[in-house]
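=== Structure Prediction Worksheet ===
Name of assembly: unnamed complex
Input type: mixed (protein and possibly other molecules)
Chain count: two
Listed entries:
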Amino acid sequence: MTAIPTFDPPVDVVREAAARFGTPLYLYDATTLSALAVEVAGFGGPFGFTPRFAIKANPTRAILRLFADAGLSFDASTTHEARRAILAGIAPERIQLTSQMLGEGFEDLVREGVGFTACSLAQLERYGQAFPGTSATLRINPGEGSGHNNRTNVAGPDASFGVWHAHVPDALKLAARHDVRLRGAHHHVGSGGDPARWAEIASVTLDIVRTMPDVTTVNLGGGFKVGRMPGEPSSDLSAAAAAADRLLREFATETGRQLHLEIEPGTYLTATGGAVIGSVQDVVTTGAAGRVFVKLDVGMAEILRPSIYGAQHPIDFLARDPAGELGGARSLLVVGPCCESGDLLTPTKGDPEGLAPRELPLPSLGDLAVVGGAGAYCASMPAKHYNSIPAAPELLVRADGTLELVRRRQSLDDLLRDEL
Amino acid sequence: MTAIPTFDPPVDVVREAAARFGTPLYLYDATTLSALAVEVAGFGGPFGFTPRFAIKANPTRAILRLFADAGLSFDASTTHEARRAILAGIAPERIQLTSQMLGEGFEDLVREGVGFTACSLAQLERYGQAFPGTSATLRINPGEGSGHNNRTNVAGPDASFGVWHAHVPDALKLAARHDVRLRGAHHHVGSGGDPARWAEIASVTLDIVRTMPDVTTVNLGGGFKVGRMPGEPSSDLSAAAAAADRLLREFATETGRQLHLEIEPGTYLTATGGAVIGSVQDVVTTGAAGRVFVKLDVGMAEILRPSIYGAQHPIDFLARDPAGELGGARSLLVVGPCCESGDLLTPTKGDPEGLAPRELPLPSLGDLAVVGGAGAYCASMPAKHYNSIPAAPELLVRADGTLELVRRRQSLDDLLRDEL
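=== Predicted Assembly ===
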């Protein structure tokens, strides 16, 4: 477990962004994101390596462009994400579609060059009918996986992702019937974060690959844990890389097959590269023996992870005026602006129902708040438009320090555009 | 606990909607919604009554128009919701703004005639400065409330909503300083559903109103429980109405003050009036001792309540072809299409982490699914655009049975429009 490059937004940048674009807003840092891309690109593999970015973590065009320029390839969870990446100027050949539902238009994407992962026998059947004589990747559920937060597993008997390991022989027959060569094997290990466990599950996947003679590429997914809170450890990529290197070399020695390695982190590449900037709307107390609530204009409509997972994000306050000062440290609950009791930014870790006050300097109305670790699954997975709140803008701090608006703030009219 | 008017979408309407507009889609029923409006309008009060619809539950223009035509007034949780209602043609005087943050533009709304509820001392101060010599409502936290699902309370020491009861004297002084008359008192009791408890908390609110001499209207919020699942009881509105009637008459006898009553349900007015229609994308199994997953194109991007609350929604399958048949009953888990282990439509009640299989007839790929009880907090509070999934369209079954598209399906271009 090592430190991970982390964006610590400079106070003058935060003040400038808030003054120019209003709050709330998402703020990403190109320097941090590039450093993360370098780390992931350095994972390597003994017989070739392709790092992919899991688009779902943050599909904003500027982020996709940045990672494309850094040499990453991409994994799309839906046909929409694949099309979005193509519209961002990414070559179809650098995109792999690994979707829980095929949706309309998947055939067009494949014809344009997007790689295809069959996530179920039914998907493989549909692919085989449409594209006989080609190759595809098979997503496998090897029967084991590590948990994602405290959610159900991404693999194992309780997970719906991929072809159950005992059904792999059926997949091989089905592929043969359509003359489809299963060149790739895909398994998303999950977000557990323990490199020993990661290696253990990767080894199970490789055992399955032994039964798949055409496989030349193995994709071990993402699932590298990121510590967002101070002192919270992140996955040690080099430990996982060393394990993968060892496993692939052993596999090659035993089987004579040199497998190309892919990984596809989403969280690891983006989580620590972004923040949400808000401003303090209110400070409410519930009596001497009660609570002190700091109410922001940032809540579940911008960042849902605390409300859905009990996820922990660092929160810092900042006097709006450079000459201003925050109050003394207090035990604070930080909440969002929605009319919803679960709109809470300081839940108990892993328990969205629990209240976990933090010792923070007491801000005043109008002061700024920086919610850190918000580059992944924040702008891409909020309860968007709840309470009819228009989506917040997204900004990128370029490597030269300039602030670039990459997505404008919505207006109320934008929310009403589709109503008839 | 009584039965509540509930939309049971006719199979031919579901098939027609799916054929014409594709899936997923939201389907509302005007007849059911109108019946619910009649029930709420009949709640009544001994000295005057105003029923309001809590817009946040479903802010679609067609729904707002339907309730406006049914004679309801409205409660807005944000300035955006209030503006949205005005743009839907609702007179500002019928809208009350009860927002956790004032946001820009609240002064314009008040000038146009929107009623104002101060939800904190800071809001009251800001209102008083802008509108001295007028009147306002005060949202109060009486120190007690009933839980919302298994979330933190909406009132009590752990809730940030409203002015803490011990601070009401401060609010009275502050209002007097700005010559603002506190004509209304507001307290959202919460979603507990027990009428005895509801009456008990309403009584505490009235005790506080005794100390507020200018109050002529008391708003007891919403929070009436709705049973979405077969056999699950709903709040008995008549029991709550009887309790309110008794309390207000007693209050009048004791104090000589005849209070106008308001309530503002959201869930009760809409939950059972809508469904989400999806289609089966896949059926995946994890071995003989494992699970059977039915994967829909409906998931957390359309309906988040199961994933965030462990909420229970009825799910029915329907052969797409009228001549088709479903399979035999099986123990099924129903999941959404997102690349997210928590995208689950059959969680354990109150526990989004838990898996609760249901005995349902096994559908085939392409068959239709009706997720019921989806009129409230579904289209208004999903993880919209997660996995870059465009928002689903909304349809209304008019009283004459015709199917009307009230919100068109988004395209991918709509999601990219704001990118620069």
